[in-house]
Design brief:
Elements lengths: L2 H16 L2 H14 L3 E6 L4 E3 L11 H14 L9 E4 L6 H12 L13 E5 L1 H11 L3 E2 L2 E2 L2 H7 L1 H9 L1 E6 L1 H6 L3 H12 L8 H9 L11 H8 L10 H11 L2 H14 L8 H7 L8 H16 L11
Parallel strand pairs: 2-4, 3-7
Antiparallel strand pairs: 1-7, 3-4, 5-6
Helix pairs in contact: 1-2, 3-5, 5-7, 6-7, 10-12, 12-14, 13-15
């Protein structure tokens, strides 16, 4: 990558970061295509894993993955309906492999195993790809193994994508090396347009806040971090101040990490609590001892893992 191209890319990514997210990233993609650093290729789902920065490091929601298996069977799978974007994986770097193996291990068998070498890491289209991986490896779904041969009888196009993959837009790993912010900006742009990709959730906002916790366990001032967190225009921006307040008062880093792992494994990261619930959870009391903090964390786990609203604002 020469200095001229590097300068042009830096200019457009700066524009995406500080001014016009979508326009800046589309211009970035155009420059990458023109220079041969972004190309389109069909890739088997076996070789595509989830990028460690996907959805701010959360990875995929296994419940959503399985719901897509049913949705695609009911309505038909049209690969052109989604935007599939990935980056090349460096052969000497095990970060992607380790992240995906850990994600699979935490899924309690709900995600497809890592059997083949992951050559690409998805930024967009990750949930659809994971659904295809379930078919590809004949994984269990609703109590029985999936079969591509059986699927081919009902939906040949869907079966072909599960077997051979969809068309991906792939970015050369040199781009990510030169611009570490690229994946985050690309992810924010994909979330902003809210195509087939999973809509940003409160769980994701919570995780993103936790990434800002400093060495002493304190969050920076809200005004300093809110603009970057809300850059992708999530559908629930009004909840962020209350999530911030909860984490500032009762969100000790190791506790929040434990809560995130629990919800990802046993619940649905799509559950939305709303500003009023977060506000109630974060109310200060005269005696905030450790038991009370643990009780609040337990409430959070309960509400994020139950599909029905079992705890109300009045209960809190």
């Amino acid at each position: 990558m020469d200095s001229v191209l590097r300068g042009k890319l830096a200019e457009q990514m700066s524009r995406a970061e500080n001014e016009a997210l979508l326009a800046g990233m589309e211009n970035t993609y155009q420059l990458l295509r023109q220079s041969g650093l972004m190309y389109t290729i069909q890739i088997s789902p076996a070789f595509v894993g989830c990028h460690p920065q996907n959805r701010d490091g959360i990875g995929v929601d296994q419940q959503h993955v399985h719901s897509l298996v049913d949705k695609f069977q009911e309505s038909g799978f049209v690969s052109s309906a989604g935007r599939y974007m990935a980056v090349e994986v460096e052969p000497v770097n095990n970060t992607v492999k380790d992240f995906n193996e850990e994600m699979v291990a935490k899924s309690n068998g709900q995600l497809a195993p890592i059997k083949d070498t992951l050559k690409y890491a998805s930024i967009s289209g990750s949930h659809s790809n994971q659904a295809l991986r379930l078919w590809h490896y004949a994984c269990q779904h609703n109590g029985k193994p999936l079969s591509i041969d059986a699927l081919r009888v009902d939906d040949a196009a869907y079966a072909e994508c599960a077997s051979s993959g969809v068309m991906w837009q792939v970015i050369d790993h040199a781009v990510v090396q030169a611009f570490p912010q690229f994946v985050g900006l690309c992810q924010a742009a994909c979330n902003s347009v809210q195509q087939v990709s999973q809509v940003e959730t409160e769980f994701q906002l919570m995780h993103r806040l936790r990434q800002h916790v400093g060495a002493k366990g304190e969050l920076p001032p809200y005004a300093d971090i809110a603009p970057s967190i809300l850059r992708s225009h999530p559908p629930n921006p009004d909840v962020l101040p209350y999530v911030y307040k909860f984490m500032s008062r009762f969100g000790e880093a190791s506790m929040m990490k434990n809560t995130e792992s629990f919800v990802a494994a046993f619940g649905s990261v799509k559950n939305q609590l709303g500003a009023s619930v977060w506000d109630a959870l974060s109310l200060d009391t005269r005696h905030n001892n450790e038991d009370l903090v643990l009780w609040r964390q337990a409430l959070l786990k309960t509400m994020m893992t139950c599909n029905d609203r079992v705890v109300s604002v009045g209960d809190i």
